[in-house]
Amino acid sequence: MNSILIVDDLESIHEMLDAVVQPIGLSTAFAKDGQNALELFKEKRFPLVLTDINMSPMDGMELLKELKAIDPNVLVIMMSGYANTDNAMQSLRLGAFDYITKPFKVDQLMSAINRAQEVFKTRAKDGDVNDGDPSLNFIGDSPSIQKLRKSVEKLSSTTNTVLIEGEIGTQKSLVASLLRKAEENEEDSAEERPFIALSCKKLSEEELKDSLVGPEQKGGSLFQEARGGILFIRDIEFLAADIQNELGTIISELKDEVRVVCSTCQNLEAMTDKGEFDESLYFRISSSPLKVPSLRERADDIPIIARAILNSLEMEEFEISDRAKALLAAYQWPGNYTELKQSIEEAAAQCENQTIRAKDLPEKIHDMTSWPSLTDYVEGKSREYMTRVLQACKGDSSKAAEILQCEEGELASIEN
C-alpha cells in the first residue's frame, strides 16, 4: 500500500495529514468533497481513503457507500468533528475500517493507518488484493476475520499441528490452503511443499487405516506422500475409534517430517469429554486451534462478499439494492459461504436490469423471525466497535476505556 486519498473541505487538514503520512512512505492525493473524491477514486483505485464525514454536496457516509460499491476491498477511515456514537456505528455497519474523532492525536491516526497497512499486507500475502474470486480468499474487515488472518500468518512460521474448527460451509479447506501459501511465502521455502488432503467422511475405515496408519503402524501412504509438507485431514470427527489412538502416536513420531492440519465441524473438546473422541489424539492436534467464523459472526462482511461473488461470476456491472443487502446481512446463513454463493448466483440469474432486489432473493432469506432484537443487535455492534478500539490501543484496556468512556472491566471479556 503506497498511497492514500485524503478527503476534507479544510485545506489545513490536508496539509497536516500530508505532513504526517508522507514520512512513512505514503504518497497523498486530496479531494475537497465526496464528489471530487469519487472522481479521483475512479481514475486511481486508492487502497486507503481517509475522509471527513461532514461535507457537501456529498458527505462522507454517502462517499463510503459509493467507494465500497466500486471496490469492496478499499479501506476507509472516517473522521468526524463530533463524537457521535450513531455516526460511528453507521459507518462501521457500512464497511468503514475505522472511525476517529477530531481533534485526534497523531498516534491515534497512525495506529489506524498502520493497522490498515497490516490488513493490506495480509490480503496481498493471501491473494486477497484485486482478486474478485472469494473462493480464493477471505475478504472483509470484521474483527473475527482479521483475527483469523493474523493467526494464519503467525502459525505459518511454526510446524505446529493445527486444528481448524468451523461450521459447515465456512471454507475450512481454504484456511488450510492459505496456511500452505503462507508457508511457501517464507524465505526458506524455495520449492513448493507437498499438500496432501483426504476426508475421513468419504473414505472407508480400511482406506483410512491404509492411508494414515500403514501396515507397520509407522505412517500410511499419505504420510509418505506428504513428507516435507502438509497432510490435511478433513472431518476428523468421522475417524474410526480404533484408528484414532494409532494416529496420535504417528503424528507425534513424524512431527518433524510431516505437518498435520485437521478440520472439524464438531466440538471435539466436548466429544472428548464424553468419551466419543480419543483424548490423546485430541491433545495432539488441538495445541494450535484456528476458529473460522460463521457468516453470522461477521454480518457486516456479507454485502462485501456478495459483491465479490458477482465479480467472480464476471457480473461486475450488477448491483445489489440496499434492501437486498440488509436482508443478506440479517439472514443467519446456516450453510455459510456455500449457501450465500448459491443464493447470489440464483438471484443474479433471475433479476431484472442487472440489479438484485429483495424480491430476487430466496424466500427463506425473507423470514425475519430469526432476526436479532434491537438490544442484541446494538450489543453486538457495540462489542465489535469496542474490539476495534482495543486493537487500535494495542491491547491497552485503560486507554481504550478512556476513549470509549466506559469502565475498564467492561473490556475484560473482549480481551479474553
Describe the structure.
There is one protein chain. With 416 residues, the protein is α/β, with parallel strands linked by helices. The chain folds into four domains: 3-125, Response regulator (Rossmann fold, 3-Layer(aba) Sandwich), CATH 3.40.50.2300; 143-291, 3-Layer(aba) Sandwich (Rossmann fold); 296-370, Orthogonal Bundle (Helicase, Ruva Protein, domain 3); 384-415. 46% of the residues lie in helices and 13% in strands. It contains 18 helices and twelve strands. It has helices at 11-21, 34-43, 60-70, 85-93, 106-125, 143-155, 172-184, 205-213, 221-225, 241-253, 268-273, 279-285, 302-312, 322-330, 336-350, 374-392, 397-404, 412-415, and strands at residues 3-7, 27-31, 48-52, 75-80, 98-101, 162-165, 195-199, 230-234, 259-264, 288-291, 319-320, 355-356. The strands form three sheets. The chain has a five-stranded parallel beta sheet with strand order 2-1-3-4-5, sandwiched between helices. The two termini are 31 Å apart.
Uncertain spans: 125-137, 187-191
Largest sheet, in brief, is: 5 strands, parallel
User: Would you give the CATH topology of the largest domain?
Assistant: Rossmann fold
Strand order of the largest sheet: 2-1-3-4-5
